[in-house]
Amino acid sequence: MIRFTRNEIRDLIISFIVIALGFSILYCNRDYNQIIFLFPIVMIGVGAGFIFHELGHKFSAMHYGYWAEYQLWPTGLVIALVSSFFGFIFAAPGAVYIYSNGMLEEENGIVSLAGPAVNIVLGLLFYGILMSLGPITDNTGYIIALICLLGTRINFFLAAFNLLPIPPLDGSKVMSWSIPVWLIAFVIAAGLVLFFGGFLG
Predict the structure, then answer these.
(1) Which of 109, 115, 190, 192 has a beta carbon 3.0–4.6 Å from 56's, enabling a disulfide?
(2) In terms of Cα–Cα distance, which of 88, 68, 74 is closest to 25?
(3) Distances (CA, A) of 159 to 35, 86, 166, 176
(4) Is the per-residue pLDDT at 23 higher than 50?
(5) How far is CA 29 from CA 25, 26, 41, 48, 78, in A?
(6) Is it the case that residue 2 has pLDDT exceeding 80?
(7) Between these two residues, 199 and 81, which has the higher pLDDT value?
(8) What is the chain's Cα-based Rg?
């Protein structure tokens, strides 16, 4: 049974808002007046990317019978906001904490891989919607295209970033379980970032 605590819901909402603000600052190109316009647009791409990334961890851990709960990391939220002013973003707002008496290394690796895998799927979904829009002739179409463009880029970025083999990021746990699996996943995620970053540039 999937359950959320009140504190977990609060932490997810706070992290969601802060990360959305950070990416809005990142994409405004120092024109901070654009943040008001970008924020609700980025919230959709980040909302899908961030929330479903964490739910991927939570649901996969609970699949193995463990209790899992998201908790924000205040320092990570501050770093995300500060770094966004310097043209990049260190997106580590928190993590899903798994409570167990002894989690197998393979289970930990699969649970860690679930989050980035969700981001890859979402990125491809946003890209598919973007490609299906056809000619854009009005503001609504432009906004939808922008949402899909940012959704594609942000989700691929989140996948590649979280797969970096640096503790406490997901990549370090996947690598501890299986170097070949980590390498394949990271190459795919990084390749998507590089290809679509230029292709949609």
Answers:
(1) 115
(2) 88
(3) 24, 21, 14, 18
(4) yes
(5) 7, 7, 15, 23, 20
(6) no
(7) 81
(8) 17
Asked if residues 169 and 158 have their Cβ atoms less than 8 Å apart, the reply is no
pLDDT above 70 (res 1): no
Residue with tokens 């942000």: 154
Helix axes 179-199, 105-131, angle to 10 degrees: 20
- The pLDDT score that the predictor gives to residue 201 is 47
* Residue type (1 letter), 69: E
- In the chain, DSSP finds a helix count (H) and a strand count (E) of 8, 2
The pTM score is: 0.89
The number of residues in the chain equals 201
Active-site residue flag, 54: yes
> Which residue of the set 8, 54, 69, 107 is catalytic?
54
Half-sphere CA count of 65, side-chain side, radius 13 A: 5
Residue linked to tokens 């854009």: 136
Residue 99 forms beta bridges with which residues?
67
According to the model, what pLDDT value does residue 98 have?
93
Please state, in angstroms and as integers, the Cα–Cα distance from residue 31 to each residue in 80, 149, 173, following that order. 18, 19, 38
- At residue 94, the 3 state secondary structure works out as strand
Identity at 24, one-letter amino acid code: S
Cα–Cα distance, 25 to 33 (Å, whole number): 10
* Distance separating alpha carbons of residues 118 and 54, to the nearest angstrom: 9
